[in-house]
Amino acid sequence: MKELLFKRKKAFAVYVLACFFPVIGQLLGNLGFANLIGVVEKANMRDFYIAVLGIVAIVIISSLLQLSSRFLRIRFMRDTLLDIRKQAFDKILNYSYAHFSKKSKEVYISNLVNDINNFEQIFFHRLLNVIFNSGVYFTSLILLAFFDWQFAIAIFVVSLVVFLITKGFEGKTVSLQENVSTLNEEFTIKASNTFNGLEILKLNSIEDKFLLQTMKSIDKVEQKRFFFTLFTEGQRGLTNILRYLIFIGILMYLLLQAFGGLSIAKLTFMLQLATGCVWPIGQVMPMFNELKAAIRIYEKITVNDEPERDINQNLTPYVFKQSIVAKGLSFAYDNQPILNNASFNLIKGKKYLLKGASGAGKSTLIKLLSKIYENYQGEIYLDDENYHHVSSEAFNNNVSYIYQDVFLFEDTLLNNITLYSDYSSEIIDDAIKRSGLEELLLEKEEGLNFKIQENGKNLSGGQRQRISIARAIIKQTDILFADEATSSLNEQLGREVEETILSLKSTVIAISHRYYEGITEKYDYVLELKNGLLQEYPSEVYFKEVVTL
Q1: For labelling, which of 197, 220, 293, 538 has a CA lying 20 to 30 Å from the CA of 318?
Q2: Helical H segments across 370-404, by residue range
Q3: Where in the chain is the domain with CATH 3.40.50.300?
Q4: HSE-CB for 132 with a 13 A CA cutoff
Q5: Span(s) in the chain for CATH 1.20.1560.10
Q6: What is the C-alpha to C-alpha distance for residues 135 and 277, in angstroms, rounded to an integer?
Q7: What is the arrangement of strands in the sheet containing 385-386, beginning at the earlier edge strand?
Q8: Which Gene3D superfamilies does the record cross-reference, listed alphabetically (predicted)?
Q9: H, E, C per residue of 298-363
Q10: SS3 of residue 375 by DSSP
Q11: What is the secondary structure of 495-533 as a DSSP string?
């Protein structure tokens, strides 16, 4: 947090200085009021009118100080909040895929929305008040020491005791705020799941049941918010009781001083200074605890919690000339074995079809071979280089993917195909033709400038799939991973796309449940996964002998 605040040292210094502006206004107000009491004590009407004019001037000055304070603080607050949003987003984007997958995407959305909004609502308001009340406290204490240093020391000791009492609430305050954050994550996940399945809920008339579950989630969040508010207000209530008791003691002491000859004006000013020491105590500590809770949320959403990787990882350049070799490869997901001591050799330029029952681990194997999952047992080599040592960035630059679930950006068709990279018009036209996107271009007057809506909701499933295929073709990579690439296409287009994939120079590792007679047999090898075991067959053997068994 310190690094964030001190990133703009001058701006932060201005922010802190601006927080003290209201302190000046309050001290001027105390002085003006004490002066007015002194004038009334003297019963001089001329001085009374002058004192009243002085108070009016103080009110105007205080208002200008308040306005100036806000104006000087607002830019620093805006820039800092923007930094926090960037840090939180960068943290997520810099996760490895394996670490990112440990949480639902809705958790990250909750962090970026709910947690940052909570931080914004709490942090700067509490920071302002902590600085302001601390300024009032120390300024009043110093001025009070000029009038009665022993009295000032007594107030300091008493305030220290109150500080230690309220300090004990810090841990619970932080814990409650973290619970609110966690429940917000859970609610976001449930709400997202409900919206994703809304069509099924409505078709089966069970939306009321899920509405009830959602309301229960909201109730849990609001209850925890209520407990957090109740606890912090309870802190203020306790400190208020202590403040009133201390105030009574201060008042009794000053009244006794008045009997000894202390003027009413001086008594009033000292009482205001003493109050300036006592009242902030009850304000500062609960707010300080809330400030600590906000800082903990900031750390949660911005500090990278992914374990540091091996220092030797991702240092070797990508080189693929011969084969991808797996030796004794084993992998389990949630304690469920997926691969058991598999060994195989994928030759560059060859085409491999992954077969197996649903849930056998075909998609997992692709994620292992594409360096998405790296917590496996055994070894995978790219030529003679261990997979763990190959630069992930360089590897990804030479690999393309076709997935069944296609993600599209709210942008033009061209940018969704090229993914913001520069390609010649000839390469783009070739990718469009070979992926079967020509029909879509003819339908849209804007052509390649056609604007795709949120995740392609203005396109059919087949059109979305073809864009994914075009992405893979245009990249012209060494390796292509295809997971049900033709599942959303009709028979004719599916055959054409499958033929296109098999015609690429890339090494192809594909999953497909569809069989296109005369085309699917063109794969060089079939890798069949069954009960964690991997068996390799030449394509002609598999389709002539294994499939017929």
Answers
A1: 538
A2: 392-397
A3: 323-546
A4: 23
A5: 2-302
A6: 10
A7: 336-347, 323-333, 377-382, 385-386
A8: ABC transporter type 1, transmembrane domain, P-loop containing nucleotide triphosphate hydrolases
A9: HHHHHCCCCCCCCCCCCCECCCCCCEEEEEEEEEEECCEEEEEEEEEEEECCCEEEEEECCCCCHH
A10: coil
A11: HHHHHHHHHSSSEEEEE-----TTTGGGSSEEEEEETTE
Measured between alpha carbons, how far is 81 from 119 in angstroms, rounded to an integer?
9
Query: What would the two tokens of residue 191 be?
Result: 């709400």
Are residues 530 and 542 in contact, defined by beta-carbon separation less than 8 angstroms? no
Residues 6+ positions from 362 with CB-CB distance below 8 Å: 354, 355, 356, 483, 511, 529
CATH number of 2-302: 1.20.1560.10
**Helix H or strand E encompassing 382:** strand 377-382
Q: What is the DSSP string of 418-440?
A: HTT----HHHHHHHHHHHT-HHH
pLDDT tier, 223 (very low <50, low <70, confident <90, very high otherwise): confident
With 70 as the cut, is the pLDDT of residue 205 above it? Answer: no
Q: Which two tokens stand for residue 124?
A: 């700067």
CB 472 within 8 A of CB 480: yes
143-165 burial by CB neighbour count: b if 16+ within 10 A, else e?
A: bbbeebeebbebbeebbeebeee
First to last CA, the chain: 66
Whole-number Å distance between alpha carbons of 166 and 236: 9
Place of tokens 């969704």: 416
Q: Are 295 and 253 in contact (CB under 8 A)?
A: no
Estimate to the nearest angstrom the gap between the alpha carbon of 201 and the chain centroid.
30
Class of the domain covering 323-546: alpha beta
pLDDT of residue 84: 83
Residue keyed to tokens 């080599």: 381
Whether residue 427 contacts residue 470, with contact meaning beta carbons closer than 8 Å, is answered with no
pLDDT per residue over 35-86, tens digit each?
777 666 666 677 777 777 877 887 888 888 878 878 888 888 888 888 888 8
